[in-house]
Fold this sequence. Notes:
By secondary structure, the protein is mainly β. The protein has no helices and eleven strands. β5 (46-51) and β6 form a beta hairpin.
Amino acid sequence: QLQLVESGGGLVQPGGSLRLSCAASGFTFGTYVIGWFRQAPGKEREGVSCIGSKGRSTNYADSVKGRFTISRDNAKNTVYLQMNSLKPEDTAVYYCAAGYYIGSLATSRYDYWGQGTQVTVSS
């Protein structure tokens, strides 16, 4: 059974950092593009970052460029999202998803989704 499980969310002050993890099981992880998305209350889900199956290709939303870094360890079936210089507007539920379209941050390009982890940036 294909499964994606996010972890690492929590409450952090503005300017702080968090590292999210997305652990995968039940499928050939190393053949999939993995994306991170987020959804704030009352807003649509938006793409944050994605990484190619071998980790050589990455893409970021303009709102997080220079602050977030995506990486993956295929030996551990895990993708990470290092989030630095966090802002209150980064507050959302963060989801990881698996798909096949390199570089895409469109939710429609992803087939499998995790349940999400809450990130709250507040003083």
